[in-house]
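Sample pair:
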Amino acid sequence: MRIKALLLSLLSCMTTANAQESFEFKPVAQGFGDPIAITSVPSEPSKLFVVERSGIVAIVENGRRVKRDLLDIEDILAPQENAGLSGVAFSPSYEQTKELYVTYTDKQGDTIVGRFATKAGETVDEDSLIVVLKVVQPNPHAHRSTLAFDGNDTLLIGLGDAPRNPGASSLAQNPRSLFGKVLRIGLADPSRYTIPTDNPFAKRNDAAPEVWALGVQNPLSLSFDPITKRVLLVDSGRDVQELDLVERGKNYGWNIVEGTSCLVTTCDTANFTPPIYSYSAVARGSAVGGFFYNGTRNPTLQGSYIFADAHSKTLFKLVQNGTAWTRIPVAQANFPIVAVGQGAAGDIYAATGDGTLSILASNK
């Protein structure tokens, strides 16, 4: 009995220690210009890719930034504020195809989703660009877009709504429009995209068949969890930062509601899906997504959603307990965190506004 009690005591101490594990950021590389995302591919575990708004995808290999960049498309991007390169997603079959997909604002101010191929797996062949989707922007200030694969050759695209007054006719609530939506397209055919047969509006004439979900405002990032098959969207609003679980055919309420707040005199929220977590925005764009962490390097973070808040310079984990989600601080940075991501080996990285890439390290 005494041995059993001792073992239980030791186990309790270990559990408490893990629960109280603290982390810090350790610099890895510097000199990145306006980083917006950090990503990796399983087939190249020694490499990390840092996406810059200017159109560059930089390579960090074995802890050092290499001289060559994977991608540099600065010459085809719009120079406006909040434009440029918005997102990068490697094909799930990248090891075989060497293809990656990007979303950016072109010189005409329109949103482009394009496919590139790499040359011998080293750098992107700029001449290989194939425009998969072009969305003509009616508003020169509405450029927000993001993308992520949700398994195999199905691509999710988050497309922001044009700025409108609360309660006005919003493109986000118009199922015929692609604006203010999460789109879903098939990419098995290299010559054109297809409409997945299980898209909610695939067989309707009164809506765009590409639409997967609607009622989003300013999508900053999409993340697919290969374990649970869930998709999380960070939607950065005027007054609220919200995190939404994106599901087929759901309406997230913009611009009738923002977060859980009604924006008009009277609104019926019965048909809207509320965010799983939201908080007041000190500044637009302060929420920085984000990914579901399933790695083994940081066991106390496993199964949680990792994201940051730029204004507070804090990395958080979002943990589910039943139907409730709780935000828990993980680490503090010295400068605003502007991008977070994970390496193929399961390490967690963050980029800060001073152009530094850091790795998350345990203090124990």
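DSSP finds two helices and 26 strands in the chain.
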